[in-house]
Specification:
By secondary structure, the chain is mainly alpha-helical. Helix content is 79%, strand content 0%. The model has no long low-confidence stretch (mean pLDDT 80).
Length: 136
């Protein structure tokens, strides 16, 4: 089934590169907004900008990979949104665990890496099942 995105998206967002720029800007603004809302320092603000840019690159690459592997726009957007949510949740969990000083940074990093790998595996399995059911 071919998806007609011309009716579901505003005109400027029909261009893929404009869509990705919007995602990047939203990710950076979300990181900056969180720092301002929580009264963070300049050092935390710089970390937030770096994390926002990094997360937006990952989200954009996830969207592009989904489109490249044949996902319709809506599925690629949903996959990118899941990755965005996992990234934001990872940031919150990291900050909470670092503030509690229960785990070392290495232990936190390994746990978050495991969560990200599990998310990627689950998304891959969903994609594989989707392809098998669509072909049958």
């Amino acid at each position: 089934m071919v998806e007609d995105s011309s009716t579901s998206l505003p005109g400027p967002l029909q261009n893929g590169s404009v869509y990705l720029v919007v995602v990047v800007v939203l990710a950076v603004l979300a990181a900056l907004g969180a720092v301002f809302a929580l009264g963070g320092s300049t050092d935390e603000l710089l970390w937030a900008v770096a994390a926002g840019v990094g997360l937006s690159v990952v989200v954009a690459l996830t969207y592009q990979a989904g489109r490249r592997f044949g996902q319709p726009h809506s599925h690629a957007t949903a996959t990118a949104a899941v990755i965005f949510g996992v990234g934001l949740l990872a940031g919150v969990i990291t900050e909470l665990l670092r503030a509690s000083e229960i785990l070392t940074d290495a232990e936190i990093g390994l746990g978050l890496l495991g969560a990200v790998v599990a998310t990627v595996v689950i998304i891959g399995l969903i994609g594989a099942v989707d392809r098998m059911t669509a072909a049958g």
